[in-house]
Structure formats: structure tokens, C-alpha cells
């Protein structure tokens, strides 16, 4: 019996495509350098072939599809009797942005909103916990200095972080997330009266004076709106991208547009919009109510070329859980709401990873040829 060659296996794997990869990077797993191992062994009825492919982030949404495609491709190789597909996670970083300021941090992303009260902090906290659940090393900066709600939502409202011998602050840790908030450093109500420059200095400290260690993703819960404070902050951080949170009303989209324009002006990639309180599903009858009227966010996003990353319901369990310091992603992992946040976390991490890959290829390209290709969608 002749065993299939490594080249024959590689040729078959060229048919395996990650639907989230931009075609110009080479969407198939061979051109995009995602085959880590190939083992070919003789079995009683033919060859057993094992391949190891990379996933671009923990919980990579493409995993099931990559597995099915790879198994089918291997079955098609003459002489193969059995096949096994394994994965290792290799998350590309945005190091170009973070190298100087935050050397151990892979990606920094802002969570913003055109106005307050839309659930920005709720989304930021649950997104962070969902990422941690998936195995992402994640941190959270509460940059919403004048309304810090992260300490309560994270269940450590009264904790005070310690500074070490070099006056670096160790972040607090709960639900798998490392986080800092002015609410923990000076007391929840004291920063409310601060003015712009003080806020800017304080938040810069939250970044630079914290010993973050190694993180795949650092989320920044930005203040709401598009005023001076948030502008300064968004400029201060090496943001690899931003997510905008909004409620579904038509009028809310005007705020979304302003927030998106602000990030665009600052050359921060907007990953997309998260629609919060999109509908209410009665837990007893299952009837779905469009509380704010029939939402047109999908149409608005399409018209604006903005990705709709997720639509979260108004859920009666969200507020009590947040107020008790047990976000649903930590305390009710099997709930529908937590499931939606897990899906959102996977989509966001994948986008960051793909963008990191595009940036590093662009940097390689410019090192050789002087000019970088444009970011897809930019
Ligand atoms: P923001 O950060 O935009 O000011 P918050 O995250 O503090 O908003 O949320 C405002 C209030 O709405 C909080 O009481 C929060 O618990 C509640 N809330 C947010 N999202 C939801 C949701 N999807 N379902 C139910 N209540 C929510």
C-alpha cells in the first residue's frame, strides 16, 4: 500500500476556506499558513491522516466549518481510510499599535455609545466575561470615569487595588477578567465633578500605571457621547478598534452616526454596532415585543456600511444580575442572553485577529516594497 504524500494532503487542504478571512490574504488554510502539523500513518485498511490547523482566536466561529471541510478534503485523498482534525489557537495581535505603550497586550478595543443609558457598560462587562469564559486572556478598563459602574457589575465595588514596589497597580480580578476602575481607586461618587483634563490624566494612569501582564484583549469602557472627554480618551489609547452600543430606535441611530464619525476621524476601525434592548421576549408566554417599535437598525447599518455584530434583548434578569455583581455571562452561562454574548465575543475576537493579521502582512509588505495595501473595508 502506498501512503498519500504530504504534498497530496496539502493540495487537498487548499480547498479548506475560512469564511471570515479576506480573500486577498488567502482564505484557504494552506495559503494563509494555518497548517501546523500533518501526520500520515499506515492503518489496516489504508492511511490514517491527522492534521492540526490553527484557529485565530478561542471560540473561533469558523471551527466547525473548518473541521467539516478538512475532514471532507482528507476523505477525498486517494488511499486515506481515516482522518482526524485538531486545532491550536494562535491569535494574531495588533502589536503595531500596542508595542510601545502596552507590550504584553494583543489588542485594545473601545466600547463606546452615542449617549448614556444604552447598556454600554453592561455590554462591555458581559463581553469581557464571555471572552474569559472562552479562554481569552482579557482585561477591562473602566474609562467611564464620571459614571463608573464596572466595580459593582464585576462584584468588587469595595475592593481597593494594591500598588507594588514600583508603584504599579495590580488589576482586580473577578469572573476571569482583570480590571481597573477609578471607582475602586477613589470611591464611586468622587470623580463625578471632575473636568476634562483631570479625567484625561486619570484614565491615562489607568493604562500606564497598571501591571496588566499578558492579555489577548483589553476592553475599554469609554464614556458615553462624543464630547471632549471621550475624544481625548479615544486618542490617548492605542485602540485597534471600537464597538458602538445603541438601542434600536431610529433617533438613536443619529447618535450612532456621530460616534462612528468620531472614531473614523481618529482613524480607529469601527468593528461594528451592538444593538441592545432590541426586543423583549416574555419569559412566561414567549411572545416577542418590539418595545421601541419595529427596529430598523439592520437597514441603517447596511446603508452606512456598518456591521451589526449582535442584537441583544431586553432581559429582566440582566439588571438584577449586574447590580449583584454577577453578570449573566458568569452566573447564568446557559441562559440565552449569555449565549448571545458568547457568540458576540467570538465574532469580536475573530475580527480583531483577522485585522491583526492584515496589519502584520501590510507591515511586512511595506518593509519589502515601501507601500502597504489598504485594509479591507477601510
Ligand atoms: P450605559 O453604560 O450605556 O450608561 P448601563 O450598562 O449602565 O448603560 O445600563 C443602563 C441600565 O440598563 C442598567 O440598569 C442595566 O442593568 C440595564 N440594561 C442594560 N442592558 C440591558 C438589557 N439588555 N436588558 C435589561 N436591562 C439592561
How many separate domains make up the residues? Answer: 2
Low-confidence spans: pLDDT under 50, at least 5 residues? none
Shape: globular
What is the helix tally? 13
Q: In the CATH hierarchy, what is the superfamily of the largest domain?
A: P-loop containing nucleotide triphosphate hydrolases
CATH-assigned fold name of the largest domain: Rossmann fold
Description:
There is one protein chain. With 378 residues, this protein is α/β, with parallel strands linked by helices. 37% of the residues lie in helices and 20% in strands. It is built from 13 helices and 13 strands. The strands form 3 sheets. The protein has an 8-stranded mixed beta sheet, sandwiched between helices. Helix 4 (120-134) crosses helix 13 (336-369) and helix 7 (196-208) runs parallel beside helix 8. The longest helix has 34 residues, at 336-369. The site of adenosine-5'-diphosphate has 18 residues, from helix 4 and helix 11. The site of adenosine-5'-diphosphate (ADP) has 18 residues, from helix 4 and helix 11.
Amino acid at each position: 500500500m502506498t501512503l498519500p504524500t504530504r504534498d497530496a494532503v496539502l493540495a487537498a487542504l487548499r480547498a479548506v476556506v475560512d469564511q471570515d478571512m479576506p480573500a486577498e490574504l488567502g482564505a484557504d488554510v494552506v495559503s494563509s499558513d494555518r497548517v501546523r502539523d500533518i501526520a500520515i500513518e499506515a492503518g489496516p485498511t489504508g492511511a490514517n491522516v491527522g492534521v492540526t490547523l490553527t484557529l485565530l482566536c478561542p471560540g473561533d466561529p469558523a471551527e466547525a466549518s473548518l473541521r467539516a471541510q478538512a475532514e471532507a478534503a482528507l476523505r477525498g485523498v486517494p488511499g486515506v481510510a481515516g482522518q482526524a482534525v485538531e486545532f491550536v489557537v494562535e491569535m494574531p495581535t495588533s502589536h503595531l499599535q500596542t508595542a510601545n505603550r502596552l507590550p504584553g497586550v494583543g489588542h485594545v478595543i473601545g466600547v463606546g455609545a452615542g449617549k448614556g443609558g444604552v447598556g454600554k457598560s453592561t455590554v462591555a462587562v458581559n463581553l469581557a466575561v464571555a471572552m474569559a469564559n472562552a479562554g481569552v486572556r482579557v482585561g477591562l478598563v473602566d474609562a467611564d470615569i464620571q459614571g463608573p459602574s464596572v466595580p459593582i457589575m464585576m462584584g468588587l465595588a469595595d475592593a481597593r487595588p494594591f500598588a507594588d514596589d514600583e508603584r504599579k497597580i495590580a488589576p482586580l480580578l473577578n469572573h476571569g477578567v482583570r480590571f481597573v476602575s477609578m471607582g475602586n481607586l477613589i470611591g464611586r461618587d468622587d470623580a463625578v465633578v471632575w473636568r476634562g483634563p483631570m479625567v484625561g490624566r486619570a484614565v491615562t494612569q489607568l493604562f500606564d500605571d497598571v501591571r496588566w501582564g499578558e492579555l489577548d484583549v483589553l476592553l475599554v469602557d469609554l464614556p458615553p457621547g462624543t464630547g471632549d472627554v471621550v475624544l481625548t480618551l479615544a486618542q490617548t489609547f492605542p485602540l485597534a478598534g471600537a464597538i458602538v452600543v445603541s438601542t434600536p430606535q431610529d433617533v438613536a441611530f443619529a447618535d450612532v452616526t456621530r460616534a462612528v464619525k468620531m472614531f473614523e476621524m481618529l482613524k480607529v476601525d469601527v468593528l461594528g454596532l451592538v444593538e441592545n434592548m432590541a426586543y423583549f421576549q416574555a419569559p412566561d408566554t414567549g411572545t416577542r415585543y418590539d418595545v421601541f417599535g419595529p427596529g430598523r437598525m439592520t437597514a441603517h447599518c447596511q446603508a452606512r456600511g456598518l456591521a451589526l455584530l449582535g442584537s441583544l434583548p431586553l432581559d429582566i434578569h440582566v439588571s438584577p444580575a449586574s447590580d449583584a455583581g454577577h453578570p449573566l455571562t458568569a452566573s447564568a452561562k446557559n441562559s440565552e442572553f449569555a449565549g448571545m454574548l458568547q457568540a458576540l465575543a467570538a465574532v469580536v475576537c475573530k475580527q480583531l485577529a483577522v485585522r491583526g493579521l492584515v496589519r502584520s502582512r501590510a507591515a511586512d509588505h511595506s518593509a519589502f516594497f515601501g507601500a502597504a495595501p489598504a485594509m479591507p473595508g477601510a
